[in-house]
Amino acid sequence: MSWLALHQSQLTAHIVTDTAKFLLIIAPRQDVAMTADGGKPEAVRLVQILVNPLLVDLIGATVTGE
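That's the Conjugation system ATPase, TraG family sequence above. Prediction below.
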């Protein structure tokens, strides 16, 4: 029964209502403050690293060719 509800998008549709708001949370250069109960908050920076897969393939081919 739960598979049918998930297939019909009825289980988790209310969790992320707006994709733009969700992307703002995980976008690069956004700071998130974390703290234990009653402690001093420490900032955590989210970093996104993008690598072109073709570049990685070229590096591997060059190393094995030597």
